[in-house]
Amino acid sequence: MSELFTVAVIGSGTMGAGIAEVAASNGHQVLLYDIxxxxxxxxxxxxxxxxxxxxxxxxIDAQRSETILACLRPVTELHDLARAGLVIEAASxxxxxxxxxxxxxxxxxxxxxxLTSNTSSISITAIAADIPHPERVAGLHFFNPAPVxxxxxVVSGLATSAQVVDTLCAIASRWGKQPVRCQSTPGFIVNRxxxxxxxxxxxxxxxxxxxxxxxxxxxxxAGRFPMGPLELTDLIGQDVxxxxxxxxxxxxxxERRFLPSLFQQELVLAGRLGxxxxxxxxxxxxxxxxxxxxxxxxxxxxxxxxxxxxxxxxNPLTELDELLLIETDGETAQSLSARRQxxxxxxxxxxxxxxxxxxxxxxxxxDTDKAVRYFQQQGxxxxxxxxxxxxxxxxxxxxxxxxxxxxxxxxxxxxxxxxTAMRLGVNYPRGxxxxxxxxxxxxxxxxxxxxxxYYGEERYRPCSLLRQRALTEGCYES
Length: 478
What we know:
Layout: E1 7-10, H1 14-25, E2 30-33, H2 39-56, H3 62-70, E3 72-75, E4 86-89, H4 95-108, E5 114-117, H5 124-128, E6 137-142, E7 151-156, H6 162-174, E8 178-183, H7 190-193, H8 195-206, H9 212-222, H10 229-236, H11 238-251, H12 262-269, E9 305-309, E10 316-320, E11 323-327, H13 333-340, E12 344-347, E13 354-359, H14 365-376, E14 381-384, H15 393-409, H16 415-425, H17 432-439, H18 441-455, H19 464-477
Parallel strand pairs: 1-2, 1-4, 2-3, 4-5, 5-6, 7-8, 11-12, 13-14
Antiparallel strand pairs: 6-7, 9-10, 10-11, 12-13
Helix pairs in contact: 1-2, 8-15, 10-11, 15-17, 15-18, 18-19
């Protein structure tokens, strides 16, 4: 393909308009089509306003803006797309609509035209199943906002040719994007691997472990995720996030680790869709700040502090007089306290200036206060939640690692592409596979096994590749 082939974009909503802007910004003539005849013109006007804002802020000059706009052309007939070298469909997320559309495109466009879908979860194999030359059909999944986000998932169906994938990756790279290759599987990479980030937060909220603000603060400030999961679902839209979760859940034959949240369903049924409706988990606009334990424990200091590692789990362990301060391995503080016959406070994985604590119910308040004071003296802000196995950050990270390993084992994508996708697509502080390696496969396995034992659910079942890596790590250490 020549570098300046014509690009057709079907669908002029937020994603379609964003993709059209990306292509036009790279010098392509762009044909923008929508079933609603006047929608492409409105989309181009929206692009004009965004470009004008960038000109006003000195990001681009006026000539550059006019050059981009000159590349955009609204069309009203699907037949107008026949001269495109690349078609990117960004229409409704319904399989029957996409299959009908691609059948029409296959009749209209020459055999060498690449036909792609921006779908986030629908099977590329299913879209291509009944059209001539299915080898030219692939997924080209951009992330919102398309002009800003660098990640593009290039998705292969069963019939997609390797040459088509190579070509699409080269195009994405020329457009300043970072392509990752993956196989057509529910949710592809990002929307599959990211499910536990939301699911564990919903579970904690449903089990009333802590207020939403505290759950979000734990993942954001201790886990160093860019945003708390509950706040993020409000920004995405509760209806959109819930629909993706349901889609992945059903596509995996109701696999329990993708189980949707009944509480989120209630929000959707109530029309509390998040920021766009003014009310979701939170009210918008508004501040969503947790209550920090700023004053707790100031009068309860330990007389003797001994820091070591637990002889069995190898986890960090600190003795504050009689109190044991233990990094969580998926057991509750009360379980550890009962077994050790001493007061216990467990703390969460922390990569920032915040630490999450949970105390055994049998503790004296003075014992728990010592733990709070201990971390405050290290300059940490303290969040205390109810006694909860795996706390908030550790169990979320362990589930992300497990899901990434499962995707790797099943050939969805390479390890490098999985980690790249999660860093760039959802801005995680590091890729989940790299995270698992840093934390230690045995520790991740132990957290999941303890969670599975506590709940008696398949949801926390460790994948076999995690068990293999834990065994290898154990042999290496010995």
